[in-house]
């Protein structure tokens, strides 16, 4: 993964940029979150394609979840899945990232985030059964 | 030498398909379409004993009198199908594997291109060039 600092800076600017363009008339607050989430979605899809290039075939959903929880999570967040540290507005991109990753592996889901106690963040992944 | 290369999305429609002698294009389209069934069979749990073994490369899907069809499925359920002429010296298995590897690498690059929307047909020149190199020499 490329330098963490570079992405943090970019992410900061993305959020400010999207909100600024919203201020100049366009749309209300909800749309900003959607835009950021969609950006994360697309990036998540691309990331998954790159990461699963060399891994073995996933037999079932359990394999996919194991991959997401271990390899994908540690590569993206450089941390184990149960400790994570983020800020409120900045969650949209990350939720989209997870949703994009799952979608490219064939799992339709809705990802929401809650911050109950700082610096912890909980992602809730609701999977639609097909 | 590969005579036809196709990239099929997970919803089973073609993202990219190209064949070399232009007059047989329809025949190759049909071949690729019928090979999708074989791919599904190999991937599903039924064929577990035979091929799967956690590998992305599926191997020979089926041979006909003039050519052989090889398959490869990525973890994002995108399928690559390659039709190879049997008449010239049979390409060895690892050569086919390396061709699929190159395809997969180029496909990953296309996916990561922010101007590409997943699900659209592939128009990338780099991808085209890579496929051309495979069809001309079969390296």
TrEMBL record, chain A:
Gene Ontology BP term (one): endoplasmic reticulum to Golgi vesicle-mediated transport
Single GO cellular component term: TRAPP complex
A Pfam entry, by short name: TRAPP
Coarse class of the protein's main subcellular location: Golgi
Subcellular locations according to the entry: Golgi apparatus, cis-Golgi network
Membrane-crossing residue ranges in chain numbering: none
Family: Belongs to the TRAPP small subunits family. BET3 subfamily.
Protein name in the entry: Trafficking protein particle complex subunit 6B
Source organism (scientific name): Vombatus ursinus (Common wombat)
Taxon lineage: Eukaryota, Metazoa, Chordata, Craniata, Vertebrata
Gene: TRAPPC6B
Automatic annotation (TrEMBL), chain B:
Keyword terms: Cytoplasm, Endoplasmic reticulum, ER-Golgi transport, Golgi apparatus, Transport
Pfam families: Sedlin_N (PF04628)
Domain of life: Eukaryota
BP GO annotations: endoplasmic reticulum to Golgi vesicle-mediated transport
CDD domains named among the record's database cross-references: TRAPPC2L
SUPFAM superfamilies listed in its UniProt record: SNARE-like (SSF64356)
InterPro entries per UniProt: Longin-like_dom_sf (IPR011012), Sedlin (IPR006722), TRAPPC2L (IPR044760)
Cellular compartments annotated: Cytoplasm, Perinuclear region; Endoplasmic reticulum; Golgi apparatus
Main location group: cytoplasm
PANTHER family in the cross-refs: TRAFFICKING PROTEIN PARTICLE COMPLEX SUBUNIT 2
Protein family: Belongs to the TRAPP small subunits family. Sedlin subfamily.
Protein's UniProt name: Trafficking protein particle complex subunit 2-like protein
UniProt source species: Vombatus ursinus (Common wombat)
Gene behind the chain: TRAPPC2L
């Amino acid at each position: 993964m490329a330098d963490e600092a570079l992405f943090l800076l970019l992410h900061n600017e993305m959020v400010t940029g999207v909100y600024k363009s919203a201020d100049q008339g366009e749309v209300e607050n909800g749309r900003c979150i959607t835009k950021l989430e969609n950006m994360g979605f697309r990036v998540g899809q691309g990331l998954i394609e790159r990461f699963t290039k060399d891994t073995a075939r996933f037999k079932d959903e359990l394999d996919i979840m194991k991959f997401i929880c271990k390899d994908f999570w540690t590569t993206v967040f450089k941390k184990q899945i149960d400790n994570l540290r983020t800020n409120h507005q900045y969650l949209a991109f990350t939720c989209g990232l997870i949703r994009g990753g799952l979608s490219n592996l064939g799992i339709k889901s809705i990802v929401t985030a809650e911050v109950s106690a700082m610096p912890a963040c909980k992602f809730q992944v609701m999977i639609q059964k097909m | 030498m590969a005579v036809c290369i196709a990239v099929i999305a997970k919803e089973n429609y073609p993202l990219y398909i190209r064949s070399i002698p232009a007059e047989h294009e329809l025949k190759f389209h049909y071949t690729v379409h019928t090979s999708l069934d074989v791919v599904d069979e190999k991937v599903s749990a039924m064929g577990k004993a035979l091929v799967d073994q956690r590998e992305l490369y599926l191997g020979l899907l089926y041979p006909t009198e003039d050519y052989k069809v090889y398959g490869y499925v990525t973890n994002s359920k995108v399928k690559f199908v390659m039709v190879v002429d049997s008449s010239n010296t049979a390409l060895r298995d690892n050569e086919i594997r390396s061709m699929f590897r190159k395809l997969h690498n180029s496909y990953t690059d296309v996916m990561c291109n922010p101007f590409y929307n997943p699900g659209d047909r592939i128009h990338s020149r780099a991808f085209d060039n890579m496929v051309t190199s495979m069809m001309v020499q079969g390296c």
